[in-house]
Write a structure and sequence with these properties.
This protein is about 85% helix and about 0% strand. The chain is mainly alpha-helical.
Length: about 280
């Protein structure tokens, strides 16, 4: 136990050192970061999967993968909040499930964040292409998942106690994944909401954004305390994510989710290849 704790502390200090050595990037780097954050914030508020844009952008710019992941989590958190505000009217009618799903989201997000910072940077670097590919495939299968969940939702319009426990556990695991990496958690959360019988897409999006705030919020606090954040990149991305989140919520009714999903899937596949060959 002492050895594991020492390794964790050493790794945390290494991250602090890397974060402290980072300086404000060139105008081109700043432009790339802002652009990726705006797009990611908009995508997250509409369909989820924005991390597939913003996280690879940071890695492509040469940031340490774990540092980039932690920074990305903090940066996109305000965007989730902005997206939730955009669906505030629909969210008001989901109080029945609000507290039930917030608890496992907070617990899972904390566990995932701890697990991330206990993962060696070299190991996480090798996992990145697989994580991106997995999230991309999840996004590609969203329509099929949604259709299947429609039948489950009808069957569990008034879920039993046992079914609620299952959904609670499912959301906890989603939270762990979200705290660890996060790309595609929007899809998984929509799946969880379908499992408890919710069918209104806008209500589900509002609650999804709120749960994302819980998961990313506790993870962000842990990353910040651990010194695993590049604040220069993070603050720039946060501003872009807020703009994107508001913009995405406003455009959600105009642009089809299918178009957004296909766009993100294409980018995700490209990023997978780029991460594999870099």
């Amino acid at each position: 136990m002492a050895s594991a704790q020492t390794k964790s502390q050493t790794f945390s200090k290494a991250l602090v050192g890397k974060a402290g050595q980072d300086s404000m990037g060139s105008p081109m780097e700043i432009a790339i970061i802002v652009g990726a954050a705006v797009i990611a914030g908009a995508i997250n508020s509409i369909a989820g999967g924005g991390t597939l844009i913003s996280f690879p952008a940071l890695v492509w710019l040469g940031r340490d993968p774990i540092l980039a992941n932690a920074t990305n989590t903090i940066a996109l958190w305000p965007g989730s909040f902005a997206g939730m505000v955009g669906f505030r009217r629909e969210l008001a009618s989901t109080r029945r499930w609000l507290f039930l799903l917030v608890i496992p989201s907070l617990l899972g997000g904390t566990g995932g964040a701890i697990l991330l910072l206990r993962t060696p940077s070299t190991t996480f670097d090798r996992l990145v292409p697989l994580l991106i590919l997995g999230a991309t495939l999840l996004l590609a299968a969203q329509e099929m998942i949604t259709r299947r969940l429609a039948f489950i939702a009808e069957a569990h319009e008034n879920p039993t106690a046992g079914w609620v426990v299952f959904v609670f556990t499912f959301q906890f695991l989603v939270g762990v994944y979200g705290g660890y990496f996060g790309a595609g958690i929007g899809i998984l959360m929509l799946a969880a909401l379908g499992l408890i019988g919710m069918t209104d897409l806008h209500q589900m999006n509002g609650l999804k954004n709120l749960l994302a705030i819980c998961i990313n919020g506790v993870a962000a606090i842990y990353f910040a305390i651990s010194g695993a954040v590049d604040w220069n990149d993070g603050l720039i991305m946060a501003g872009g994510a807020i703009v994107g989140g508001v913009l995405g919520a406003r455009l959600a009714h105009r642009f089809g989710r299918k178009f957004v999903r296909r766009f993100v899937v294409a980018i995700g596949l490209i990023m997978t290849v780029v991460m594999l060959v870099r």
